[in-house]
Each structure stands twice: as structure tokens, then as C-alpha cells.
Design brief:
By secondary structure, the protein is of the alpha/beta class. Helix content is 42%, strand content 24%.
Length: 123
């Protein structure tokens, strides 16, 4: 019986240890910052829109999306002594696909010219 109660308390405590992140609007985020409720924020930069995950002083986590030019929000967070961390957006291999296709077409044309065929006429 004691073991079952212990296991149940551990499971309940583990479920409460990681609160869910609530998604809020940019306006609501600024209201939290102005009220001094935001303790820290992690901004993922390098995109047209910058996702931000913030930790409130009461322990709750919130996330929103800042506009590409988020200078106003950054200034406001600095004025309210928010611990701000800016991280670079991870690179995606999809960014290299257009270059890879262009390189493939160029190599095929080069190969056809070396074989003595004109690249713009069918074989």
C-alpha cells in the first residue's frame, strides 16, 4: 500500500514539474513585459518573424512570435530587466536545394558539351 502511494505521488509530482507552454498574442506578451511579469526570454532570431519563449516570474512559460523588427519589444524588455537570450535559427538543408538543382543542371550541360553534343538540342 505504501509503495502504491509513493508511486502515485511521484507520478503526480512529475506531471506538475513541467508546466505546459501557453501560446499568447504579441500584444498580450507586451502587456506581461510592461507589468514586469516576465523574468526571462529566449528569442530565436534570423527569420522574418522571431519566435520567443518566455518564463514569467510565477514560473509559467509562454510563447509568442515577435515581428521581424522587434527593437521595440527588446528595448521594453531591457527597461524591465528581463534576462534576454538571442539564439540563431538553426540552418535548414532546404535552403541549399535551389543551389543544388542549379549545380546539377550546370554539370549535365557541361557533360553534354564534353561529349560533343549541343546542350540546347535533344540528343
Amino acid at each position: 500500500m505504501k509503495i502504491a502511494m509513493f508511486v502515485a505521488s511521484v507520478v503526480l509530482a512529475a506531471g506538475q514539474a513541467l508546466p505546459a507552454t501557453a501560446h499568447i498574442s504579441y500584444t498580450q506578451f507586451l502587456q506581461h513585459v510592461r507589468a514586469g511579469e516576465v523574468a526571462s526570454a529566449v528569442i530565436t532570431s534570423g527569420r522574418a518573424a522571431a519566435p520567443v519563449t518566455a518564463r514569467l516570474r510565477d514560473g509559467r512559460a509562454i510563447d509568442t512570435v515577435l515581428p521581424g523588427d522587434y527593437d521595440h519589444a527588446l528595448t521594453l524588455m531591457q527597461e524591465r530587466n528581463v534576462d534576454v537570450e538571442i539564439v540563431a535559427a538553426p540552418l535548414s538543408l532546404w535552403n541549399a536545394v535551389p543551389f543544388g538543382l542549379l549545380l546539377a543542371v550546370w554539370l549535365i550541360l557541361l557533360w553534354r558539351v564534353r561529349r560533343g553534343k549541343t546542350p540546347w538540342l535533344p540528343a
